[in-house]
Amino acid sequence: MLDLKLLEHLESFLTDKRRQRFDEVLSQRTKHFTVATEDVYQLHNTSAVMRSCEVFGIQELHVIEERNTKKIDREIALGAQKWVDLKRYRSVTDCIKELKNNNYQIIATTPHINDSLLADFDVTQKACIFFGRETEGLSEEVIDQADKFIKIPMVGFTESLNISVSAAIILQHITTKLKQTDINWELTEEEKNEKKLDWIKRTIHSYDEIVERFYSIK
């Protein structure tokens, strides 16, 4: 269980501006939606998706690496890896199983006979938005397991968008729409405090020494 007195003590090492910023950002974070990428080949694409997750308040990113295993490009992510929770999987099966166990719908971003336009997407249900490989798109396993399909309307000759562009468009739309509802989409107070502690740990130098000293004089 989180030690709130420790958290309060650690917050005293932050500037007022940083402490206020943490609270502001956490108030806009959500796990109502999450994102999964499947074997994305270009490193900068996964990094850019992570950046979009951070910008639009998505707290978790699920990365499936059955074929391609790479580290997040820090230059593209622009520090987003410090603030977004990254979950890695070696198989699509494991990822989908965990998501469904946490009551997420599987949403495939691909044209499909039963697809719906982004504007018509129902934001009331917890959902994980899946993005596929740059050339092949999503695997048959994801398509078969998907609960729904969405697509971005396009009216030009080009029939596809870069994965990072697609992610930004979709996340901006669904998070804006979500925040116009009465749904309780925010993190719980416990989740906010746990995440704040994690962010403080990534921010404060000599974190371990400060914690050790706190408990030694408690």
How does this model look, in words?
By secondary structure, this protein is of the alpha/beta class. The protein has 2 domains: 1-29 and 188-218, no CATH class; 31-185, Alpha/beta knot. The protein is 43% helix and 15% strand. A 7-stranded parallel β-sheet has the order 3-2-1-6-4-7-5, with helices on both faces. Helix 1 crosses helix 8 (189-203) and helix 3 packs parallel to helix 7. It is elongated. The mean pLDDT is 88.
Summarize the structure.
With 218 residues, the protein is of the alpha/beta class.
Keywords:
single chain; alpha/beta; Alpha/beta knot; 9 helices; 7 strands; 43% helix
> Kindly state the mean pLDDT as a whole number?
88
CATH class of the largest domain: Alpha Beta
Count all strands and give the number.
7
| Topology as a string of helices (H) and strands (E) | HHEHEHEHEEEHEHHH
| Spatial shape | elongated
Instruction: Identify the CATH architecture of the largest domain.
Output: 3-Layer(aba) Sandwich
Instruction: Tell me the fraction of residues in β-strands, as a range.
Output: 5-15%
Main structural class: alpha/beta
Contiguous runs where pLDDT drops below 50 for at least 5 residues: none
N- to C-terminal distance: 17 Å
